Amino acid sequence: MARADGAGLSAAGTGCQGGGMRILIVGAGIVGAALADRLTRPDRDVTIVEELWPGGGTSGTSYAWLNANDPHDPVYYRFRTEALRTWRDLAAGLGDPDWYRPTGNTVWATGGAKAELADRVRRLTALGYAAEQIDAERLRAIEPHVQAPDDAFIAHFPDEGHIHGEPAARGLVRRAHDAGAEVVTGHRAVRLTLDGGRVTGVRLDDGRDVPADLTVCAAGRHSPALLGTAGLDLPLVDPAAPGSAAPCLVATTTATDSVLNGLVHAPGLSARATGNGGLVLEAVELDAGIDESVSPERVQEVGEELLSRARAVIPGLDADVAEMRRCVRPLPIDGYPLIGPQAPGLYTAVTHSGITLAPHLARLIDREIDGDPAPELAPYRPDRPLTNTGG
């Protein structure tokens, strides 16, 4: 059995139930955790089921960047900027916890990529997003340990940041539990239970049935398998397919004196601070072939390359790779969230950008459960024609 979540919650489930509408949330990554936090109230009986522990899957291993740094789709851009505001409000209500890090993001480009970054800054600024070109002196003030090439185009996005995914999910689930939610960890939902065409809850891997008036699938990459038990499809990129973009490798380092103040995106490297004095390192182009059969030797090679790139960006970096983590992201085929009812008694909430979107999605889904359709979610229904691109 998996460990408890660290919040004093037993694997068998604890909490009090009040006799209202029964809502079952499957998955306690950041989306499920935000839903549990938002949906728990006296007139509802909320249960959250998680195979591992809150934040123990993708949310706890991802780079966890909070941003709306893409201006190409105006509707989705506005959706993401609203999500950043929701995060600020949520964090303020929690007393600005240590796991919420609105630290800013510094990006630079060289060669032919400079024009693209300059255009992005221009377009985002025109939309009212906090984005600016900075020089090397300003870079040193923001990130004293970082060095960019002399000819780089450097941009700064002060309103962006990151979260520490596992403690964030754990904190949100803890607050839901304290408000009366039932929390079941260490057990997997193996199938949806049905009465005619209506979803009535889930069956767990120990044979127990968890009944619900409304089941919310927030199981991330595992959602297609669960939904498939009721004959339902979800258009996610298959992480097991050759060349799949869903899996990635993320390195964490030992503690270092060369810690970063915010996020840094350099050519070939994304880096940010951990919560314990180290760094998180990632590079998209190193993720090719990182499937379930990836060899330990390949994982070690990627770690060594990430550390080498980090030492080029952060001269004098005095750290080593402490851990390599394989992260499998839920990637909708067209890049956009998959949010909404899929059958009577069933609501799906799955997205690639869960770190950025989770509290905002929870707020809108809460409205819909109360019978108030959210027009902001209309473009992102699971049964939409897959004609969108990007995201």
Automatic annotation (TrEMBL):
GO terms for molecular function: oxidoreductase activity. Keywords: Oxidoreductase. It holds the Pfam family DAO. PROSITE patterns: PROKAR_LIPOPROTEIN. GO terms for cellular component: cytoplasm. This is FAD-binding oxidoreductase. InterPro entries: FAD-dep_OxRdtase, FAD/NAD-bd_sf. SUPFAM superfamilies: FAD/NAD(P)-binding domain. The keyword Coiled coil does not apply.
